[in-house]
Structure formats: structure tokens, C-alpha cells
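#lab-general

N.A. 3:47 PM
ok so I finally got the sequence cleaned up, no stray characters, all 477 residues accounted for. can someone with queue access submit it? mine expired

B.Y. 3:52 PM
send it over

N.A. 3:53 PM
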Amino acid sequence: MNIAIVGGGGMCLRLLDFIFNKGIHMVEPNVVAVADPKAEAPGRRRAEELGIFVTEDYNELFDRDDVDLIIELTGNIDIYNDILRKKKNHVRALPHTIVMLFWGIDDTSRQEGEAGFHAGSKNNVYEVLMNQYIQEEAMVIDKDYRVIDMNEAMLNKLGRTGEEAFGEFCYKIGHHLDEPCSGENHPCPLNEVYEKNRPCMTTHIHLDQDNNEIYYSISCYPLTNKGQIVGAIEILRDITPEIKVQKSQMHQEKLMSIGRLSAGIAHEINNPLTTIMTSAMMLQEELDTKDEMYEELQIISNEAQRCRKIVQSLLDFARQTKPMQKLHDINDIIQESIYLTKKQAEFNDIEIQTDLAETMPQVYVDKEQIQQLVINLILNAVEATDPGGQITISTECPRTADKIYMHVEDTGRGIAREDLGRIFDPFFTTREFGTGLGLSISHSIVERHGGEIKVDSRPGQGTRFTVILPAGGDVQE
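B.Y. 4:20 PM
back already:
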């Protein structure tokens, strides 16, 4: 593995001496370049003595074809992030915090000798490095996909104990699968490491104990003993917050574009629709109600009205009205919303129950918008629930939290896993009739109030929407 080092200070000097004096036989590194703006930096001087290429500008490293890994030893996170942005796709990068981990692993492996790498003989140095020094999530896996070790950071994220994780298959712990990961969208990094004996990098989606998705950027490195691969170490960086920000930005841009388009279309369609409806009703006035033409005109009128509802939804979606916030009791808004939708639920033989917290703080919200949100969620639940089903609306405000929670849960058909990520997209619907705008509008309302909306659903087991709003409200200027 050819390594380029960014930062020629004391850590670089120690790393070079460690590699060339002791050797790291498990990773088999070969340093090909060192970058540091200071010619007197000790690591850079040592590299020159060893005949290694040196440069003042680390940007020169990105054009080289002989670099497999770039190690940042400056201690500057901005430089590390810059390296991540500029490096070639096949080149891996490690921050300085990871370097110590490999030193510890190699020392442990030397002590174990022929016995191979296993958790039972970890020494104290390795324990400290794995669980205290390194902040990223990490695990060590053998060639049979079994977890040999996992640091505390990763155990906590997955909600596991060491007893539950060690010896278990990695794909079962991380993905709840019964066989190794595969496919273009979910490749197994271990396969590439074992086949090519070189580091690899990929992105995976893991599941925590509650089946919530966690996005990981995974760097996988082979661990060797006397030239033979005995396992691999995976360094996992949780990029879920970054993914959520990107998705949110894309969603907002999509909403803005569709909103502008929708507003224009809605205004153009509204006028001819009004003419159609008026003409149909005027013609009906001249006919007997038993006339066959009267029924045909009624169909025209009904369909025109349905189109007007769609147009109104487009306008509601396009407006993105700024909330007019005042102090309100969220329980009162829910009760009023239930009153407005109760008849439709009863018509479909669906019972609406409530479990509202007795003590809820008043919050700064736009009453009409929040009422529209609640009505959308209730009607959405009614349409997804078969006759005889039940909808439960509950609220809570934990004493230690600065948020209030509203849940709308049904006993309906549930949502397929592949559709969960799209339900808030404009015009996405799995129903024969519907605009696919109700949940998009609801999502926008929650965001405009500085809140968050989540969904938990499984086919055949119902759906639960959770709306989280700031306690006291997020007053928009």
C-alpha cells in the first residue's frame, strides 16, 4: 500500500521511523511522498534522507498515480476535509487520529504471533486505542465475516453489547441480513479487500436497534500476518447528518421549483374549470332531474369540482405561506381537527381515539396551518385504514425535553419499505385517486414551524406519523 503523508512534523517523523525501523507487517505500507510547507519540518527532512519525494504543497499529491492512501498528520480538520474533496475516488484518506490505531493493532498482532488475530488476547494498549483514542466507529472482522472486535462507539450506536456482537456475522449486526452484503448499491467492502489485498472504500446504510437508517462511509483495510490476510479493520464514519442536510436541501429546491410551476398551472386551469362547472349547472337547470342528459351533466360537474380540489391543493402547495404564529394549545387544535374529520371517519367505519397529555405547554404556531397538518394526517390515515380499523392521536411533552410530540397512528395497510423515503415527495402517491400533495404540504408546514416529521410503518402493521415541534414554538421573524 503506497502512502502519501500530509504534515511533516513530529508525528510524521515518528511514523516514518516506526515503518522503516520496526515495520508494520500487517498493513505493509510504503511511503512515497511527504508534504509540508516548512522545509525544516523534522518529518520532511527525514523523508528527504530516505529518498522519499517531498513537496511544500499537498495539492501536488492528488495528481500522482502511485498513491493508495493519504494520511493527514497536521491535526487540522479543514485540511483533512480538503483532502477528502480533492483526492481521486480510488484513493483513501485517514485523519491523524486513526494512525495510532494501526500501531496498536500491529503491536498486538506481533505479541500473538502464529495464533492469529482474536479478541481474547488484546493488550491494554490496543484497548485504549480502540475505545478511547479513536473517535470513529471501528470493528475488526475475520475472513468468515465474524466480528472479532468492535469499539464502544460503534456498540453504542448499534445498541449492542460486546457479548451480543463478538463472534456474530457483521452483515447480521449491521444490516439484519442472513447473508453477506452484495449488489451494486450495497457492495461488500471485505470482498474487495480479500480479493485485491488493498484498502477499499464504500458507503453503506446500517440499521440500529430501532431499524432507523444510519449512513456510513466505510474505509476497509486488510490485516495481514506474514503476508497472509487474516482479517480486516473497518473504520466507519457516520455521515447521516450530512446526508439528511443534503436531502433536505434537495427537497426544498424541488419544492420551490414545483411550487412555482404549480402556481402557474393552477391559475391557468382555474378559469376554464369555473366556466365548465357554471355551464354544466346552467344546463342542468333547464332539464328534468330524470333526464339522462342531466346525469351526464352531473358527472361533468362532479369531475370539474374534483379538478378544482386538485387545483386548490396545488395552490396550497405553491403558496408556502409564512406562519402567523400565536400562542395556542396543541390539544385544542387536535380536538377541533377531529371534529372536522369525524364524520368522514365514521362513514368509513373507523374509530378515532385520543390519548392527549393532560399538561401541555402552549406553543407559538399558526393555528390554521397546524390544523391543516392534523387534518391531512387524519384523512391520510382514514384512507389507509380498512373499515373496522382505528386511529389514535396522542401528545406528549417530556419534562426534560424542549419539544412537544404529536403522534397519529393507524391500524391500516402500512407503507412498503421502498416507498418510505418518497412519501413526502410532491405528487408521489400509491393510491388510485389522490394528488400526492397532502404529505408534501404537511412536511412543509412542519418545517416552516422549525419542527420535524417522522414516519414508522411496516406493511400490514399500520403507520405512525410523529410531529415534533419546539416547546414554546419556533417564532419565525
